[in-house]
Amino acid sequence: MIGTARKPMEEILQALDGYDKITVMGCNGCAKACKTGGEVEVDDMVKALNEAGKSVVWQVTPERTCYIQHTTGSLQGHEKEISSTDAFLVLGCGGAAQVARQAFDEMGMIMPVKIGLNSVGHLDTVIAGQLAIEQCQECGDCVLNETGGICPVTKCAKSLLNGPCGGAQDGKCEVDPARDCAWALIYDRLKALGELDKLKIYREPKDYGKSNKPRTLVIG
Amino acid sequence: MKITELFAKKTFVLTSEVGPVKGCVRETEASPSSPFLDEANLVKSCVHAVNVTDNQSAVMRLGSLAGSVKLKERGIEPIYQITCRDRNRIALQSELLTACSLGIDNVLILTGDHTTLGDHVSAKPVFDLDSVQLLKIANGMNNGRDMMGNQLTPPPQFAMGAVVNPNSNPLELQLIKMEKKIKAGAEFFQTQAVYDPKVFETFIKQTEGFGVPVQVGLVLIKSAKMAKFMNEKISGITVPDSWVKRLEGVPAGKAKDVCVEMTSEFLREVAPMCQGVHFMPLGWSDVVPRIIESAIK
Fold it and tell me: 3-state DSSP call for residue B253?
């Protein structure tokens, strides 16, 4: 999922300065899982905006706001609320906010779309409802088959491909001693799998051309 | 002079490290030298070459290439250190061509400390290449090609060194990487600081068949406080309790004497196992000649 964290209220109100009638749009996908943009958090935001003197016109939480069909579908039939809105506040990732803007563009409207969250990474939920960590950075050239299913590009602070740096100590990373050294994890895993020979293979420099931004994916 | 020529002649190779200053080295009539050059001068007559660190500990300073060239101009053989932290593959290769053009013969290739350990913690860490890859690319450049196979006319001609950490646990993982560095083109190794002869012996026994010269690395310990700090804060280095105890209560005026004594004892034990010593004096370059006098000569 895309991890999100809420922006400070002060920053949100600054972004909404000059706009009085607000619609809050959440996201029942990743932002719900992060407890930042599901229906519960949208309710909280509506209360906070009301307390700050804003007038909340409407609230809506599409299934996945980054899917254009969900966002467009959630707006249909609500032309009245939309026309009386000065600005939308999206509680979703940066992609959700931009898809929302696209939806209004396609409706022929110039609607200010503001964002109430910071996107903090492609994260995996490893303790349900409690903790998500970054394990993949979508490099476009996956090495998991060679590294025991543990990604050094993401989990090594230096993205090293040929083994650990000299700073690792007792299996911990020099950047944060609370964090496991990715290469110590890979070593343990490959040893358990009887595949330590894979560590001896020279890994070529990564083709970072495959992750040049912005990327596109033709789905169909 | 390539340091590898000395190893080939079975010379016991002595090197010491000098960290470039936070500022410039620009001699004027009013200020004809600098602390950087003064420190290098302290070891000039007793070591074969002087390493110049590349923004060591991710603290921004004078570049290691400028520092290396300044030493070369004064007749001190530099070992130019280059890390993968701050430059992408284009900049690293270009820097190597620049270094050769400015007269550098020895290069030590490292990954580099992470940006978050230094004084510019919000910097973007680069690490486009790792140390094994840069060694292989530099080796290819020595053989006339950049990493994309384009011809270099004329190519550089470096003696290439690398680093290894004998304290690392599991050691096997570190040894696998060391072998990769050798295959990639590393011709000599300087180790991370070691203080326990047994740790060094274990390491050296497992690298005997590797066929590359190894210099034992030593950060000079100035006080019990520094030893404790290194144990707590510097990843990859362990100073044994015996060293800490011996330094406890030693007055500042006697600290250098004790440092010479302890370091010399250690070196007399480990020197026969390796092909040289690399000192990291961290400002105590004046102590290096005393240790060499006491332990090596």
Answer: helix
CA gap A143, A164 in Å, rounded: 16
- As a whole number of angstroms, the distance between CA B180 and CA B162 comes to 11
Name residues 133-192 of chain A within 8 A of B (Cβ): 157-172, 174-175, 177, 183-184, 187
Q: Name the residue among B131, B196, B203 with its Cα closest to residue B166.
A: B203
Domains of chain A, each with CATH number or no CATH? 2-122 (3.40.50.2300), 135-211 (no CATH)
pTM for the model:
0.93
Return the amino acid letter for A69: Q
* Nearest CA-CA partner of A88 in B167, A105, B168: A105
Q: Which candidate from A167, A183, A187 shows the least CB-CB separation from B235?
A: A167
Whether the Cβ atoms of residue A124 and residue A135 lie closer than 8 Å to each other = yes
Q: Does B231 touch chain A (CB under 8 A)?
A: no
pLDDT-flagged residues of chain B (< 70): none
Amino acid type, B151: Q
**B179 vs A contacts (CB less than 8 Å):** 200
Per the structure block, which two tokens stand in for B249?
């209560």
**Closest partner CB to A168 (pick from B136, B184, B236):** B236
| Interstrand relation of A2-6 and A117-127 (parallel, antiparallel or unpaired) | antiparallel
Q: Do the chains contact at B180 and A177, CB–CB below 8 Å?
A: no
Is A73 a residue whose pLDDT tops 90? yes
Q: Does B90 touch chain A (CB under 8 A)?
A: no
Question: ∠A52-A54-A57 over CA atoms, to 5°?
Answer: 140
Residues B106, B66: Cα–Cα separation, whole Å: 14
- Reply yes or no on whether the pLDDT at A154 is more than 90: yes
Spell out which residues of chain A touch residue B117, defining contact as CB-CB under 8 Å: 174-175
Consecutive H or E run containing A94:
helix A94-106
Q: Which of residues 111-170 of B touch A (CB under 8 A)?
A: 111-114, 116-117, 125, 127-133, 136-137, 147, 163-165, 167-170
Domain B3-295: CATH architecture, name and number where available: Alpha-Beta Barrel (3.20)
- The residues pairing with B296 across neighbouring beta strands, listed in sequence order, are none
Average pLDDT, chain A: 96
Distance to chain A for B9, nearest Cα, Å:
29
* Residues facing A122 on adjacent strands: A2
Q: Are B88 and B128 in contact (CB under 8 A)?
A: yes
Give tens-digit pLDDT for B99-109: 999 999 999 99
Contacts of B156 (CB under 8 A, 6+ apart): B96, B97, B99, B100, B138, B141, B142
ipTM of the complex in this document:
0.92
